[in-house]
Amino acid sequence: MATTTKQAYTPLNEQTVIELSQELDLFSDYSSLEVNEIGDGNLNLVFRLVEPATKKSVIIKQALPYAKVVGESWPLTLDRARIESDSLKKFAEFSPEHVPEILYTNNELAVTVMEDLSSHVILRKGLIDGVTYPSLAQHIGTFIAKNLFYTSDFYLHPFEKKRLVQQFTNPELCKITEDLVFTDPFYDIETNDYPAELQDAVSELWNDATLRNKATRLKLKFLTHAEALLHGDLHSGSIFVTEESTKIIDSEFAYYGPQGFDIAHFFANIAMNHIAQRAHIKDKEKRAEYQLYLSGLIRDTWNTFTDTYKGLWRNEGVELATKLPGFEDEVLESIFTDMVGFAGCEVIRRTIGLAHVADLDSIADFDEQILLKKKALKLGRDWVKNKQRIKNIEEFITSIRSV
Ligand code: SR1
Ligand code: MG
């Protein structure tokens, strides 16, 4: 592909992004290009460029030198654009069908040009609207199992594993997770964000010494267990879907971490949707049916994940540990227990921390919103404190259904 003469970083705008696309020779007619900045995430600029005559379209994503959700007072490394494009390319080695195609990257400009996925919708929106996705569990379970196994010591030569750990060292983005997921929600810190009506529940949570203790231990795992390459932020806003297709995006939080982390974030966000459906779907029968779908989504994802992981372990395991009889079951049990705890932290921080989820925040009836947020907090606390007591995926699902 052609390249650009631009060398110094400056944030793109609707004019300069067209100039960049011209230098990169992405289209044939630049006079009629339609450009929209469609970024609704917390961190980046996202431009969609469409050539009306040919209907050709691309996404040009650029990291800003600060967190957009807070503003310029929160500086943030541009290196996250490199982490994102490198990790998407790494994921494409195992699951090309589940990531957008990367067409061009420029680390100095913090720019990535990628396939436009506007035929898809963001999973969070689909779930809030009560849509079912028949292939999603199969896709996510396989995607996570392959990423974890193929980037772990169970499969890689130790030199290559350590090279990847270096390539994906991502201190600033990890610090955001260390603070926003594992620390701030458990203390009276100004980044937290919740309505006054939740203060009693929040104070009770802050006074729970066991909860803090367990959350701190989970944070230590996140800090120290460089087991496999993670997406690092696999909530339902990082997944694009259609009925048949699933694409994972926004992997700027990728790093080497504990294996239970990504699947925990996926399940936590499904669980919050499950809770929120009490407000979104008024018809009782329809709601029960949809909640059953969500339970099945968790069950099928977990079963696909474990089946795929075990198959890889048996057939492609290289490290001696994969030859120990029954050891894969121990590894999967430990992933499961970590998953329950990490999911608990995610539910708590999405309810009272800095970054929320629309599933709960969009509940129009304020009293109902508060009631359901209290239920989410209770579930999150239970998962963090009692992760060892939840023995299998059926008990995990029961804990969500009995909220
Ligand atoms: C300042 S970034 C806030 C959150 O948005 C991202 O998607 C991550 O989840 C992060 O914690
Ligand atoms: Mg994101």
From TrEMBL:
Belongs to the methylthioribose kinase family. This is Methylthioribose kinase. The lineage of its organism: Bacteria, Bacillati, Bacillota, Bacilli, Bacillales. Its EC number is 2.7.1.100. Gene3D superfamilies: 3.90.1200.10, Phosphorylase Kinase, domain 1. It is an enzyme of class 2 (transferase). Keywords: Amino-acid biosynthesis, ATP-binding, Kinase, Methionine biosynthesis, Nucleotide-binding, Transferase. Catalyzes the phosphorylation of methylthioribose into methylthioribose-1-phosphate. Pathway: Amino-acid biosynthesis; L-methionine biosynthesis via salvage pathway; S-methyl-5-thio-alpha-D-ribose 1-phosphate from S-methyl-5'-thioadenosine (hydrolase route): step 2/2. The gene is mtnK. ATP binds at N44, K61, E115, D116, L117. InterPro entries: Aminoglycoside_PTrfase (IPR002575), Kinase-like_dom_sf (IPR011009), Methylthioribose_kinase (IPR009212). It comes from the Bacteria. Residues 35-270 form the Aminoglycoside phosphotransferase domain. It catalyses: 5-(methylsulfanyl)-D-ribose + ATP = 5-(methylsulfanyl)-alpha-D-ribose 1-phosphate + ADP + H(+).
